[in-house]
Amino acid sequence: CGDVICAADGCGGFCGACTDGTTAVDISGFAFVPADITVATGTTVVWTNLDSDEHSVVSMSDDESIDATGPLAGPLMAQDETFSFTFDDVGVFDYRCGPHSSMMGSVTVVD
């Protein structure tokens, strides 16, 4: 499965660690780690800022600008602070850091 945290395996099952319904993404070195994940519906993703600079998690539009109407609208997080969001809808949710436009990631949600 590589960097996929929780993905449909093509056989009706899942590979990865989905048992507790929570997936972690670190913010480290001005990057989301891992940047792109796949999770099952109902999974809560928890982002933790490990950098000394403040970061956020906000929805991103196709043109890579902040999507103020998107579901992700996390606050600026200081070091060791977290933001969590539960994904109940299937789809691809692109996001970025509010103040640092080069920091991008995506969450793909599957049934």
The arrangement of helices and strands along the chain is EEEEEEEEEE
Instruction: Give the terminus-to-terminus CA distance.
Output: 17 Å
Major pleated sheet: 4 strands, mixed
Taking Cα atoms only, what radius of gyration do you get, to the nearest Å?
Answer: 13 Å
Number of helices: 0
Mean pLDDT metric:
86
Q: Please state the overall shape, judged from the principal axes of the Cα atoms.
A: globular
Strand content: 35-45%
Instruction: Enumerate the spans where pLDDT stays under 50 for 5 or more consecutive residues.
Output: 1-5, 7-14
- Give the number of DSSP strands: 10
Helix content: under 10%
Structural class: mainly beta
Supply the key terms.
4-stranded mixed sheet; about 40% strand; mainly beta; disordered N terminus; single chain
